[in-house]
Amino acid sequence: MTVSVNYPEEFKGFAITDPKDWASPKLTSIQPKIFGPNDVDIEIEACGICASELFTLKNEWSHDELACLSSTYGPKCQIVGHEVVGKVVKIGSECKTDVKLGQRVGLGAQASCCAKEDCSRCNSGNEQYCPQSVGTYASRYPDGYVSQGGYASHVRAHEQLVFPIPDGIESHLVAPLQCGGLTVYSPIKRGIQDILDAGKEQPKVGIIGLGGLGHMAVMISKALGAEVTTFSRSNAKKDDAFKMGTDKFIATGEDKDWESKNWDQFHLILNCASGTSAVDLDKLLKTLKVNRSFINVGLPHVDEKFEISPFTFFKNGSTIGSSCLGSRAEAIELFELAAKHNIKPWVETIKIGEEGVHEGLTRLDQGDVKYRFTLVGFNEYFGTGK
Amino acid sequence: MTVSVNYPEEFKGFAITDPKDWASPKLTSIQPKIFGPNDVDIEIEACGICASELFTLKNEWSHDELACLSSTYGPKCQIVGHEVVGKVVKIGSECKTDVKLGQRVGLGAQASCCAKEDCSRCNSGNEQYCPQSVGTYASRYPDGYVSQGGYASHVRAHEQLVFPIPDGIESHLVAPLQCGGLTVYSPIKRGIQDILDAGKEQPKVGIIGLGGLGHMAVMISKALGAEVTTFSRSNAKKDDAFKMGTDKFIATGEDKDWESKNWDQFHLILNCASGTSAVDLDKLLKTLKVNRSFINVGLPHVDEKFEISPFTFFKNGSTIGSSCLGSRAEAIELFELAAKHNIKPWVETIKIGEEGVHEGLTRLDQGDVKYRFTLVGFNEYFGTGK
């Protein structure tokens, strides 16, 4: 099937208008956001499927109705997708990055930031924490448009968040690095940089949950030089974990005394599981070295909370927190690291289309994925790429 | 009144056997712990009153009975006090620190650690997190003795935790630094050291709660070169805070929009309040800069918990944790800093005795203290110091 797109006046993509239809987005034409002087249009070639999509489409990260339903202009429907790889087809008049027409680029979960010199977040390599950050989908721009994602023919984003992709990594493999990969890279890098700089010991990283995020976290930690321990509930994914490069594997539901055996081990624990309830913080925090951190990257349902006794931290002065995405500089570092170390996420490709989107979303919802889906065939489907 | 002590066979102090009598410890003779080759005996001159005493005497940090009731040997009663200043009167045969007979020393909330070269905590300046750490009171030694504190004629402790005190600070003022001062110094130092080292900006520290711990935290943060903001519920202590050196003062119950006015301000927030319920983490964490920490030093009731949504951290990648006491090296640094910067905790002295102990504990329980009590007159009372 090939559909035709009247770009740049319209983009085409797969959208829902009601969370009950989360598994079945329908082909829809949408009006893009008004093109700004720092915007870039990407003609999409491939797009990863991230668990964020399920939370957004089911509207589980909010107590309000879908944001698009109250957009000031543009579509009253929602297209998701924020692991975009594609080709630059339009560049705003004031773009300062070296983005070029025809260049292969990526776009992750953030589509805009203020990028002002006096923004303490943007001017310090922390634009993911810019107070004017706009997510790639389901997020409101200052002008009232609600952002639309990458299960689509095209996507429009601020140049700061449009990342050059080096040669040597195939698009369907580099797609999951745009959101998932960057989301784990940033806290791993920030969490062990001091140990790497000191050069006295190999950093030890624990990764909880071998799913879409976790399996990339294992590979990225290894590439950064860490000793990696994978935590999983059972031994079911043990063989996979070792193939991905983990040094050690702990099945918390099957290994006896794993917490005492691993006392004082880790410089960083990264929680890649999306729920908080399965994580026994009292046990896990004991495995951290003094003053090190347990960082979450998966976001659970809006009502799920961590419950922690202040006593838990007193045994090692550890801390717990969350990390959100990564910066442009970190994205570029990550892609270079991936190219250099031949990091290849385990990706199953699915052809874009209503059927393919449905299959990807429902199988991800059932956990039937090893370990990431990338939607492909965009050019054929949308009649683009010419 | 003068009582006589048959030191070294017995120490005398003020003890309870039942938490219902928390406010009225009685004069008691106790058998000290068996003297080890690395132990030091201190003839006590002064001892601060710490809020830990209330929690311990009321048994609010535990669901079990008082630990002393099941000690293997020694007293079946509990003496508290862990801000000890006194004179060294006995030194173990294998002591390696330069502790000297007659020297003025301090002892904080920790009385022992393994001090072994192969202990990852003891060999890295983190002996406060040694798995064999023994608290100065109500804590079980490996031999089954339950430790007894400093509202007493003498106290016995491992040399590693017996700190030399420089001249130029009076004993009743340096006493509160042994536990309270060190407990805030360690996380402040560790929390802003990277900013001090970088030398590009003045570290900004927020201190929550202007009580015993908080007022020392303000003075210590200033001495370390930070800009200090004190958070309090009302403006009642505002004048005091400025006298102590705070640069800014926020009354969270009275100032409007304090959290948006202070967005992205702090490199460190230190929570010196002992409860968790009064602290609005969702608002406070917003005032942290990217990837900085909110650290607790006050320990609440054993059943109090922090409840945090993972979403809260996503705006700035902040973390939350707790810090426990400080190391010997940090204690020595702190006393030098105090001597150099003339740090003087606001101390009201109370004469030791059943009456004085009762007054100190009940007034502290009622919050009737500005801002710390030190029990004094030990030599006169116990007939020591000769």
TrEMBL record, chains A, B:
<feature type="domain" description="Alcohol dehydrogenase-like N-terminal">
    <location>
        <begin position="36"/>
        <end position="167"/>
    </location>
</feature>
<keyword id="KW-0862">Zinc</keyword>
<dbReference type="Pfam" id="PF00107">
    <property type="entry name" value="ADH_zinc_N"/>
</dbReference>
<dbReference type="Pfam" id="PF08240">
    <property type="entry name" value="ADH_N"/>
</dbReference>
<dbReference type="InterPro" id="IPR047109">
    <property type="entry name" value="CAD-like"/>
</dbReference>
<dbReference type="InterPro" id="IPR011032">
    <property type="entry name" value="GroES-like_sf"/>
</dbReference>
<dbReference type="InterPro" id="IPR002328">
    <property type="entry name" value="ADH_Zn_CS"/>
</dbReference>
<dbReference type="InterPro" id="IPR013154">
    <property type="entry name" value="ADH-like_N"/>
</dbReference>
<protein>
    <submittedName>
        <fullName>Cinnamyl alcohol dehydrogenase 2</fullName>
        <ecNumber>1.1.1.195</ecNumber>
    </submittedName>
</protein>
<comment type="similarity">
    <text>Belongs to the zinc-containing alcohol dehydrogenase family.</text>
</comment>
<feature type="domain" description="Alcohol dehydrogenase-like C-terminal">
    <location>
        <begin position="212"/>
        <end position="338"/>
    </location>
</feature>
<dbReference type="GO" id="GO:0008270">
    <property type="term" value="F:zinc ion binding"/>
</dbReference>
<dbReference type="GO" id="GO:0045551">
    <property type="term" value="F:cinnamyl-alcohol dehydrogenase activity"/>
</dbReference>
<keyword id="KW-0560">Oxidoreductase</keyword>
<dbReference type="InterPro" id="IPR036291">
    <property type="entry name" value="NAD(P)-bd_dom_sf"/>
</dbReference>
<dbReference type="InterPro" id="IPR029752">
    <property type="entry name" value="D-isomer_DH_CS1"/>
</dbReference>
<keyword id="KW-0479">Metal-binding</keyword>
<dbReference type="InterPro" id="IPR013149">
    <property type="entry name" value="ADH-like_C"/>
</dbReference>
